[in-house]
Specification:
Elements: E1 3-4, E2 18-20, E3 23-25, E4 80-82, E5 104-106, H1 129-143, H2 152-166, E6 170-171, E7 180-181, E8 192-198, E9 209-213, H3 217-222, H4 224-234, E10 241-251, E11 255-265, E12 271-273, H5 276-283, H6 286-294, E13 297-302, H7 308-316, H8 324-332, E14 340-346, H9 347-416, H10 423-440, H11 445-469, H12 475-515, E15 518-519, E16 524-525
Length: about 525
């Protein structure tokens, strides 16, 4: 994932237009963009098995009952989609306060009721009179305050502009109207950037739901069985349901992400996974949510992919408070539009959160690389051992072949004992004697073989010596060595120039001392 700081200039509106440096500031009709606050973290973790939970009513996924609260999994609303476990700790009912474990996006279905924390996600809701007044008051505080009625109001306007750019403080502009509260979500805040988050590729039928626990990974893994039992109790203890853990992953700030899914078994023996949106809607019910918080769950979200129409809708409408030009540039700079989607980041806390998550992912990648390196080393050791065994077995096979040949020779000698030498055997003996004589002749094959053997021994000896003295340098390493030697040479040249300057200064001092003649009578030096 990357950051795109592009620029922070906002398009100016002719009604209110002032420019400080190179940053144009404007007021727009869209409300300030607001990241939703993350859910409050639960208190002490009391263990999964001992936590008291609220009993849920009996239910069936196949035929959900329509009760006052919508049944356990019978609720039809889909409160959110979730981006994958990459950045932050956002909530599933708005754009989360972080960009990591998931970015919960408000739903897009026609039957769902979108509840966001601090405004719609990328939608542009109709302005209320209060929002219009807030926008007018903000414009008055930034452009034309009437608090003092003299030239000091211009200084106050500049001060309010600085506060708005910084995203903190109060803007006083009228004695009869309360000051404007500047936050980092205001449209004039300059500390905004656009990053990218990985879109999940899980389908709703996979049934994956993310639960973020305010506990360390070791604690969660040690009590994983108690966790499964507690979640099963929260689901009503129905024997047809089975809670399964898909994965456990550590997160920054001693938090842990647990991915679960629920399998429902029907009376006829078939089974299916409960859809992720259905399970998430059940977890978002007030009584179930409080039970999860008692277990230490700070965030829950459904991990489902977005349809192309939903992605297009998100990209077409820039988030409130983000300049459309920056948003368009972020879409152009997207390194992988098929897998990544731009998300706004407001303030240093979001940047710090993303940095922590990236550092965590870097550590995980390094851990995985270390494991792979250890596996490769182990495989290399096994390969060396296997090659040694193969060579040993080859030698053993050769020895056994020779022994077998000797046994055959002795057996053949015993079989032919008492018989006269036959003609073909005599002819074979003559040929063997001829070959032996040719080999033993000094000028024939034996001499040549001895000469070749001596040359081979010499080549092997010199080759081994050359192999010991020969070495190779990588091209990149050679460039680094050249650069290092160049820097050393520059340092030596600089040191020599300093020494020369010092020598000239010493010569000047010596020349001045030589010109100074002492006067013995008066004890005064000229």
């Amino acid at each position: 994932s990357g950051f795109n700081f592009g620029g922070f200039g906002l398009t100016a509106n002719p009604a209110v237009n002032f420019n400080i440096g190179n940053f144009g500031v404007s007021t727009t009709s869209t409300p300030p963009f607001n990241f939703g606050n993350s859910l409050a973290s639960a208190g002490a973790f009391g263990g999964f098995g001992t936590t008291t939970t609220t009993a849920a009513p009996a239910f069936s996924f196949s035929a959900p009952t329509n009760t006052g609260t919508g049944g356990l999994f019978g609720a039809t609303q889909n409160k959110g989609f979730a981006f994958g476990s990459s950045f932050g700790t956002g909530t599933g009912t708005g754009l989360g306060s972080g960009l990591g474990t998931g970015l919960g996006f408000g739903g897009f279905g026609t039957q769902q009721q979108q509840t966001t924390l601090g405004g719609g996600l990328f939608s542009q809701p109709a302005q209320t009179p209060a929002q219009s007044n807030q926008l007018i008051n903000t414009a008055s505080a930034l452009s034309a305050p009437t608090l003092l009625g003299d030239e000091r109001d211009a200084i106050l306007a500049k001060w309010n502009q600085l506060q708005a750019f910084w995203g903190t403080g109060k803007g006083y502009f009228n004695n009869n109207i309360a000051p404007v509260e500047f936050t980092q979500e205001n449209p004039f805040c300059r500390f905004k950037a656009v990053g990218y988050s990985l879109m999940p590729n899980n389908k709703d039928e996979d049934g994956l739901v993310v639960l973020v626990f305010n506990r360390k990974e070791t604690d969660v893994r040690s009590q994983q069985q108690q966790l499964v039992e507690s979640l099963h109790k929260i689901l009503g203890g129905n024997q047809t349901l089975t809670v399964n853990v898909e994965g456990v992953k550590t997160m920054p700030d001693d938090q842990t992400e647990v991915i679960i899914y629920v399998v429902e078994r029907s009376p006829n023996g078939t089974s299916r996974r409960v859809p992720a949106t259905t399970l998430y809607a059940h977890f978002e019910q007030a009584n179930i949510k409080s039970s999860l918080q008692q277990l230490g769950v700070t965030l829950s979200m459904a991990r489902t992919e977005l349809s192309p129409a939903q992605v297009k809708q998100l990209l077409q409408n820039p988030p409130a408070g983000v300049d459309p030009i920056i948003w368009e540039q972020a879409k152009v700079d997207n390194p992988d539009p098929d897998k990544l989607i731009p998300v706004p980041m407001v303030g240093f806390k979001e940047l710090l959160r993303r940095l922590k998550v990236q550092d965590q992912m870097t550590k995980q990648h390094q851990t995985r690389l270390d494991i792979i390196s250890e596996d490769i080393s182990e495989l290399q050791k096994n390969q060396t051992t296997t090659m040694a065994k193969i060579a040993q077995y080859k030698r053993k096979l050769m020895a056994l072949s020779h022994r077998t040949l000797q046994v055959l020779i002795k057996q053949e000698i015993q079989r032919k004992s008492g018989y006269a030498i036959q003609a073909d055997e005599e002819q074979l003996r003559v040929q063997l004697d001829t070959i032996q004589c040719e080999l033993n002749a000094p000028t024939q094959f034996k001499g040549r073989l001895n000469e070749l053997m001596s040359q081979i021994r010499m080549q092997n000896h010199f080759g081994a010596v050359r192999a010991e003295e020969r070495y190779y340098i990588d091209a990149d390493l050679l460039r680094e060595i050249k650069q290092h030697l160049k820097q050393q040479q520059e340092g030596l040249s600089h040191l020599i120039s300093i020494i020369k300057d010092d020598l000239e200064d010493i010569k000047i001092v010596e020349h001045g001392l030589n010109e100074s003649i002492p006067i013995r009578g008066g004890g005064v030096f000229s």
